[in-house]
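#onboarding

Welcome to the new folks! Below is a worked example of what a typical request in this channel looks like: someone posts a single protein sequence, and someone else replies with the predicted structure as tokens. Don't worry about understanding the tokens yet, we'll cover that in week two.

Example request:
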Amino acid sequence: MAAFPIGAYEPRWFMRTMHCDPAEAVEMHGLVGARVSVGLHWGTFPLPDEGREAPARAVAEIGGETPDFRTLRCEETVAVGR
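Example response:
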């Protein structure tokens, strides 16, 4: 299992050295070969420029929200089998 941050990525010119964006997180999921990955570090505080819900929407728009890559909301859990 892998966990990737998908929030607080805007503006890219400033945040790209510290935070990946949703597309990069989905790409990293494939690169590391994780069976299951979760997108986290989003939706808790209204701090980033992209807006609170934008990271999850971006993952869905690129087709990244799959059983293998999930975006978890606050207090949501996912069971990972062996």
